Amino acid sequence: MAMKLQQELKRSVPFASLQQETLVNLLRIGDQLDNRLSRLFREHGLTLSRFNVLRILILADRPLTCGEIGERMIQVVPAITSLVDHLEKQALVERQRCKQDRRVVHVRITKSGRKLADAAMQHLPKTENKLLGKLSQTQLKSLNGLLDKVRESIAASDE
């Protein structure tokens, strides 16, 4: 049986509000998911962020600028250029100057980058099932709907 958050964190006093408990729960789950996925990608010599860049380039099916990559990242990373630098040193991506505008630099995935990302992605379904397999399709849809509302609320709080 799943342990209640208050027990898991060994809190002797209850949370101040349901909202506080929910925020702490989301933070705890996010950290746990990050740890599990980071472990998976580490086995392939990647960080979660570096894998994310490769995944973005594969899904885009065309070279992208660092700005375009940044807009598509799951986790906000302040230094996309640094991530691309590391991937370029590993020969997983390469940069190309735009012929029409030399100020613009596009990043494209290399064959070895695609091969490495594909190898890591083969393990994702098993990991996803381990992490979320106890939820039914209906529960997953409901959870995604609730998380969409949380993201909307976060976006509205920035306005």
Short overview:
By secondary structure, the protein is mainly alpha-helical. Helix content is 63%, strand content 6%. It has a single domain, classed as Orthogonal Bundle (Arc Repressor Mutant, subunit A).
Gyration radius (Cα, Å) is 19 Å
What low-confidence regions span 5 or more consecutive residues with pLDDT below 50?
Answer: none
Task: Give the DSSP E fraction (strand runs of 2 or more residues).
Answer: 5-15%
CATH topology: Arc Repressor Mutant, subunit A
- N- to C-terminal distance: 41 Å
The portion of residues assigned to helices is 55-70%
> What string, H for helix and E for strand, traces the elements in order?
HHHHHEEHHH
Strand order of the largest sheet: 1-2
Explain this structure to me?
By secondary structure, the protein is mostly helical. The chain has a single domain, classed as Winged helix-like DNA-binding domain superfamily/Winged helix DNA-binding domain (Arc Repressor Mutant, subunit A, Orthogonal Bundle). Helix content is 63%, strand content 6%. The protein is built from eight helices and two strands; from the N terminus they run αααααββααα. The chain has helices at 5-8, 18-42, 48-60, 66-72, 80-89, 111-121, 124-132, 137-157, and strands spanning 93-97, 105-109. Strands 1-2 form a two-stranded antiparallel sheet. β1 (93-97) and β2 form a beta hairpin. α3 packs across α6. It is globular. The chain starts with a helix and ends with a helix.
